[in-house]
Amino acid sequence: MTDLTSLTLADAREGLAQKSFTALELTDAHLAAMEKARVLNAYVLETPEQARAQAKAADATIAKGEAGPLAGIPLGVKDLFATTGVRATACSKILGNFIPQYESTVTSQLWRDGAVMLGKLNCDEFAMGSSNETSAFGPVLNPWRREGSVANLVPGGSSGGSASAVAANLCLGATGTDTGGSIRQPAAFTGIVGIKPTYGRCSRWGIVAFASSLDQAGPFARTVRDTAILMRSMAGHDPKDTTSVDRPVPDYEAAIGKSVKGMKIGIPKEYRLDGMSGEIDRLWAQGADWLKSAGAELVEVSLPHTKYALPAYYVVAPAEASSNLARYDGVRYGARVSGKNIIEMYENTRAEGFGAEVRRRIMIGTYVLSAGYYDAYYLRAQKVRTLIKKDFEDVFAQGVHAILTPATPSAAFGVGEKGKADPIEMYLNDIFTVTVNMAGLPGIAVPAGADKQGLPLGLQLIGRPFDEETLFSLGDVIEQAAGHFTARKWWA
Ligand code: GLN
């Protein structure tokens, strides 16, 4: 039998339907692969018993001809999602052994459709980071290494465990969240596909909040089609999240293979950075050529406020984070460090429970929201955000269907290599992705090439609000031209 872990999600679905193998066999193959790949540190919790029970239940529905759209498909879940009876920590010490009493809407929809949970995936603490090095569980390793090198690379962040697990065949797909790039950047660093849906497309209920006006859940998988399949189950209106939007969920998979002839694709000139590597530049031009060969029309567009996006994001996101994280006080959740009185207990708990990056964000956020600085920082950043959104609206009003950019300014970097002396060095990873969250738009990252050391590089497509289908159609064109990227196995 072929290695069940290397199937695409679509092929596994077919194999299950044809009864070529059972859901239990598929799940067991993944559990065995996870056990051998612990060096990657992708999973912070494996849930084999639950996985086998779900797989058996899926086999029963398949036998009865009542299988859901994801029946028997083994998935990993970012540890930011609440999972009933299964520890959820946001990879922070402050949540300790927190065991939620409820399930996030997104994951409950995956289980409703028959998917199997293999375990919880590592991420940056409270999803703050671009390398998965801020996790209380330690860094995740990228399954990719530079040619001829044994140096460990980061998988990107914050959803680094999700990306690494999918790229290393430790699940057929995974959930992630993206506040400033945390799905798209790790997808690009590991040679897989990740999509951040339009703000409001997936419910945020039951997902640990980082910056509520920017956070959005989305899928990772090894092909564009597989992400489209997962998206259909994850998306949808939820009365428990007032920002979730009540519109029908399309059959995203139907967008795969659809002609992109006549589509207008914008190339934003402001994304051509000074000092950008020739490799990224060539990848971008190659992507544009592929879309052109498929019948799309390429046009240069301008998004004039792009250069303000990163600084504005690093005001808005910490501001919201400082407010959201106020609830971790040692009283209601997880860890508690005692003190002489309640104030000291709060202080001790928060000082010990939060890692350095999270403390930095809380301090920045508290500062920009404080009386006297609110207008100068927070209010101004919100105004910049409106201008960034308007830039995109103007481009779409010119008849542009989607915008093509690089996903990241470089390939994956080494563990411990960036952001030690200057956190801004790390923040610069998000230069091409934060604009999309600021504007609430959908964005997909698709692997499109390799750098000279053999590491995968991704392209990003940005769409109109709620037009994920166009991104799937265009992403598929790039994938067909670029082929697939598989890391050489060194971990098992
Ligand atoms: N790297 C960005 C940050 O640290 C984005 C993180 C995310 O999207 N969750 O804020």
Figure out the total of helices: 15
The share of residues in extended strands comes to: 5-15%
- The name CATH uses for the topology of the largest domain is Amidase signature (AS) enzymes
Helix content: 25-40%
pLDDT average, as an integer?
97
Describe what this molecule looks like in 3D.
This is Glutamyl-tRNA(Gln) amidotransferase subunit A. Belongs to the amidase family. GatA subfamily. It is a single chain. This protein has helices spanning 9-17, 23-36, 48-63, 105-112, 160-167, 184-190, 224-234, 278-293, 309-324, 342-353, 356-369, 374-397, 423-427, 434-439, 468-482, and strands at residues 43-46, 74-78, 116-121, 173-178, 193-196, 216-221, 264-268, 297-301, 402-406, 443-450, 456-463. By secondary structure, it is α/β, with parallel strands linked by helices. It has three domains: 9-262 and 408-482, Amidase signature (AS) enzymes (Alpha-Beta Complex), CATH 3.90.1300; 265-305 and 386-398, no CATH class; 307-379, no CATH class. It has an eleven-stranded mixed β-sheet, sandwiched between helices. The chain is globular and about 65 Å long. The relative contact order is 0.14. The chain binds glutamine. Residues 127-130, 158, 178-182, 210, 317, 430 line the site of glutamine. Glutamine binds next to loops.
Task: Please tag this protein with its features.
492 residues; alpha/beta; binds glutamine; 3 domains
How would the blueprint of this fold be written?
Blueprint: H1 9-17, H2 23-36, E1 43-46, H3 48-63, E2 74-78, H4 105-112, E3 116-121, H5 160-167, E4 173-178, H6 184-190, E5 193-196, E6 216-221, H7 224-234, E7 264-268, H8 278-293, E8 297-301, H9 309-324, H10 342-353, H11 356-369, H12 374-397, E9 402-406, H13 423-427, H14 434-439, E10 443-450, E11 456-463, H15 468-482
Parallel strand pairs: 2-3, 2-4, 7-8, 7-9
Antiparallel strand pairs: 1-3, 4-6, 5-6, 5-10, 9-11, 10-11
Helix pairs in contact: 2-3, 5-6, 9-11, 9-12
Bound molecules: glutamine.
Glutamine is lined by residues 127-130, 158, 178-182, 210, 317, 430.
